[in-house]
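Entry — protein

Goal — fold tokens:
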Amino acid sequence: MESANQDINLNSPNKGLLSDAMTDVPVDSAAAARTSAPEGLTLAEEEELRSELAKVEEEIGTLRQVLAAKERHCGELKRKLGLTPLDGLKQNLSKSWHDVQVSNAYVKTSEKLGEWNDKVTQSDLYLSASSTLEDWNEKLTQSEAYKKTQETLSQAGQKTSAALSNVGSAISRKLGDMRAHPFSHSFSSYSIRHSISMPAMRNSATFKSFEDRVGTIKTSIRANGLSDM
């Protein structure tokens, strides 16, 4: 007890003997760092699993390096071919949509929708609604109001066709009259004054001079016609 008290006493000359003795004790660092083995595993099995884990992690790192190199090579090939990121996006979307279409979920959903459609179209409610709509359509087409409306539209169409035909005939007759009548008659039936709607132009000296010349031509043509008779 006295030796113990002397070691604990801070004023004792032997105060560092205890710590020195403790530092001389060898410590297994690997054993201290190693966690306790999981329940149901021996130390040998644990060591084997840790070794396999280290190998797998090393392989993953190697594969990442290979993938990065392949991606760089792929980017260089696309750049040489002139492919843009948009083209790559389109290809990815097309491939993704194709994968969706061939997926089991998409196929099952399509089949289920087809079954629902068959059930709906073959149900009594759907058949009754279709029959009711057909009856309404038949009654509507056979009603007096529908027939009168149809007759009115038909008459309006006939009148429009007749009016267009009359306009075409009138234009054709007018063109025929213009070809058949002489130059003098055309000028006598259509005065140049009626073709000008601007008073300033009608009162100009140029227009009056031109009108005098046309009158002279008309007089000479009439005179020649009377002399030939």
